[in-house]
UniProtKB/TrEMBL annotation:
<dbReference type="GO" id="GO:0003825">
    <property type="term" value="F:alpha,alpha-trehalose-phosphate synthase (UDP-forming) activity"/>
</dbReference>
<dbReference type="Pfam" id="PF00982">
    <property type="entry name" value="Glyco_transf_20"/>
</dbReference>
<comment type="similarity">
    <text>Belongs to the glycosyltransferase 20 family.</text>
</comment>
<dbReference type="GO" id="GO:0005992">
    <property type="term" value="P:trehalose biosynthetic process"/>
</dbReference>
<dbReference type="InterPro" id="IPR001830">
    <property type="entry name" value="Glyco_trans_20"/>
</dbReference>
<protein>
    <submittedName>
        <fullName>Alpha,alpha-trehalose-phosphate synthase</fullName>
    </submittedName>
</protein>
Length: 446
């Protein structure tokens, strides 16, 4: 069996290598289960001097993890700067939030060059190299410059914007031309593929992007929901709800997730449907990410203000309309909370896929499922017609969907859930990885 080489910005931490809890490690778990694998990327560590970073090698079973540290300057320019202050907002259609400078762009290229130089000696001619995400757009081109002949594929986990927006990035054409080095390019949705291929067409490059929608491990998440039923935190929440329906939202703190819009929608819901005051609870779980970035600090302040406004306007001495957490919950507890809830709000302004929507479906009980309220701008919306789809910019539409979800008959909830369940179990993390690897395997090498 050919060795699979995974390259990602961040390699799973040691604690996550045997029992991954989330992210790319979960998505690739089945792909690397029975296959010799090398996983290369940043260790998560920062060092003061570029000379002080030997390549770390750690083997767990048949998977070898090769890691390298970044200097503080590289971390700030490559990760915080160009990747997350330029490419991230741009790919999420928020060009106005880009904080571009040429210095960070050069560091981005330098770190990709560093990755290529340290990875190339580890590669074998018959390897299949799978590069992941926007941090590493130019890595394939640099590897080809080092005479790497192996098959190289690239998968973009986030959206890809139209060329009319993408071209606002200085040197966008050079970044697009770098993608020609990849044998297979995968994106999440038909919209993303069309946007990328139209950009290629403008630049005279043959269409390369193909759709490989990602999924979850639904059986595993359903098991987590069952196992979570015995947790004392779940029992405490049940007692505290006193039979009231629970609305839940789970997102890391990011301006792409539509969190202020969601809270405004809930505010409108309580305003338009006063009969629900004192009779419903909304739990928003929003772990803080990139907390040192000014845009994220501003977002957190806005969310704090909105939560305070809603609780101050509608709350009573024995009822808090919004419960708001800024730290993550264990996977089993989160799955159990999903199963307990009557509805989930998943309202990104733009998302590559959004696996929370699929996890929510997987956690439900067949005889009493909750209702998925989903932004039509999430990648998952394309195959989840039986969700209540909303425009997250329209607070009245969110309010109407909440009312419909909480008043929906059990029979309609079951029908909608059964159809959603079919899709969640059809397109999984395992099927996504298999389909991409199969496409890469079909490429003929020189």
């Amino acid at each position: 069996m050919q060795r699979l080489v995974i390259v990602s910005n961040r390699v799973p931490a040691i604690r996550d290598r045997k029992q991954p809890a989330g992210g790319l490690a979960v998505a690739l778990r089945d792909a690397i289960r029975d296959r010799p694998t090398l996983w290369f990327g940043w260790s998560g560590q920062q060092v003061a001097d570029c000379a002080d970073r030997p390549l770390g090698m750690d083997t767990v079973g048949h998977v070898t993890y090769a890691t390298i540290a970044l200097t503080h300057k590289e971390y700030n320019g490559f990760y915080q700067g160009y990747s997350n202050a330029v490419l991230w907002p741009l790919c999420h259609y928020r060009a106005g939030l880009m904080n571009y400078n040429r210095h960070d762009q050069q560091i981005y290229i330098n770190v990709n060059t560093l990755f290529a130089n340290r990875l190339a000696p580890l590669l074998e001619s018959d390897d299949m190299v799978w590069v992941h995400d926007y941090h590493l757009f130019p890595l394939g081109r640099i590897l080809r410059g080092l005479k790497v002949k192996a098959r190289i594929g690239f998968f973009l986990h986030i959206p890809f914007p139209p060329w009319s927006l993408m071209r606002s990035l200085p040197a966008a054409a050079a970044l697009m031309r770098a993608l020609r080095a990849y044998d297979v390019i995968g994106v999440q949705t038909e919209d993303d593929a069309r946007n990328m291929n139209e950009a290629f067409a403008v630049l005279g490059i043959p269409a390369r992007a193909r759709v490989f929608p990602i999924g979850i491990d639904p059986d595993s998440f359903a098991t987590c929901a069952r196992e979570g039923q015995g947790l004392p935190q779940l029992r405490r929440l049940q007692q505290d709800l006193r039979g009231m329906p629970l609305i839940i939202g789970v997102d890391r703190m990011d301006y792409s997730k539509g969190l202020p819009e969601r809270l405004r929608g809930y505010d409108t819901f309580l305003k338009r449907y006063p009969e629900y005051r004192g009779k419903v609870v909304y739990l928003q779980i929003t772990p803080v990410s990139r907390g040192s970035v000014p845009e994220y600090q501003s977002l957190r302040a806005e969310l704090d203000q909105l939560v305070g406004h809603i609780n101050g306007t509608y709350g009573a001495f024995d009822w808090t309309p919004v419960r708001y957490l800024t730290h993550p919950l264990p996977r089993e507890l989160l799955a159990a909370f999903f199963q307990l809830s009557s509805a989930v709000l998943v309202t990104p302004l733009r998302d590559g896929m959004n696996l929370v929507a699929k996890e929510y479906v997987a956690a439900q009980l067949a005889d009493n499922p909750g209702v998925l309220i989903l932004s039509r701008f999430a990648g998952a919306a394309a195959d989840m017609d039986d969700a209540l789809q909303v425009n997250p910019h329209d607070s009245d539409e969110i309010a109407t969907a909440l009312h419909k979800a909480l008043s929906m008959s059990a029979s309609e909830r079951k029908v909608r859930w059964e159809r959603l369940r079919t899709d969640v179990w059809r397109v999984t993390a395992a099927s996504w990885a298999r389909s991409f690897i199969a496409a890469l395997s079909e490429v003929r090498t020189a």
